[in-house]
Design goal:
With about 190 residues, the chain is of the alpha/beta class. It contains 6 helices and 6 strands, in the order E-H-E-H-E-E-H-H-H-E-H-E. Strand 1, helix 1 and strand 2 form a beta-alpha-beta unit.
Length: about 190
């Protein structure tokens, strides 16, 4: 498979037509605001996103990952909603000084992902573990949680390049090829890295 395949554009915006069931175990973890029309998950690739190409408008829900590199340019956009996922493997919670967001102001939700607690609640996780024993990336977790909870709301992965290892050379804990294949076979909508 060509790992650089870019999937078709995201479907047209529409009003949400389904909400997660009240007893879904992940429902308390992520709640979309009323009227949210689209979910954008922003990668942490250190590149400028041309916001005009993303056409971010009121009603968009932007989910930032860990370092929240693109928060300064997107938080001020009127009518948008923002949440921050912070990944950690400690029982006491994340060490916020690890992350480069200058402030936590402006995020409507701060979502700590503690892998041993959150991942077993995800319906897709056993299937992922059958493919690879590596750790899923934070963006991969966010994408699959959003699709699981809100399957009818358009989801766009912005700046993702799952075929390329963006981690530190010391870290080989992710399976980039498996994630790229997962996005491709399950028809996730990616914008190419800018």
């Amino acid at each position: 498979m060509d790992a650089h395949i870019i999937l078709p554009p995201a479907p047209p915006r529409s009003r949400p037509t389904a909400q997660p069931s009240l007893d879904h175990p992940l429902r308390p973890f992520l709640s979309l605001p009323p009227g949210a029309t689209r979910i954008l998950i922003l990668s942490n690739i250190r590149r400028h996103f041309p916001l005009d190409q993303l056409n971010i408008t009121a009603g968009d829900f932007l989910l930032h990952l860990n370092h929240a590199i693109h928060a300064p340019e997107t938080l001020p956009l009127p009518g948008t909603h923002h949440a921050l996922i912070i990944r950690h493997n400690t029982k006491t919670g994340p060490y916020l000084h690890w992350f480069s967001a200058p402030t936590l102001d402006g995020f409507a939700q701060i979502l700590p992902i503690h892998d041993p607690t959150i991942l077993p609640l995800c319906s897709w996780f056993k299937q992922y573990r059958a493919l690879t024993k590596k750790s899923p990336t934070t963006g991969f977790i966010a994408a699959n949680i959003c699709r699981e909870l809100y399957p009818r709301i358009p989801l766009l992965l912005v700046g993702f390049d799952p075929a390329h290892n963006h981690g530190t050379p010391r870290w080989n804990g992710h399976d980039w090829a498996a994630e790229a294949n997962w996005y491709h076979t399950r028809h996730f909508h990616l914008l190419p890295p800018f």
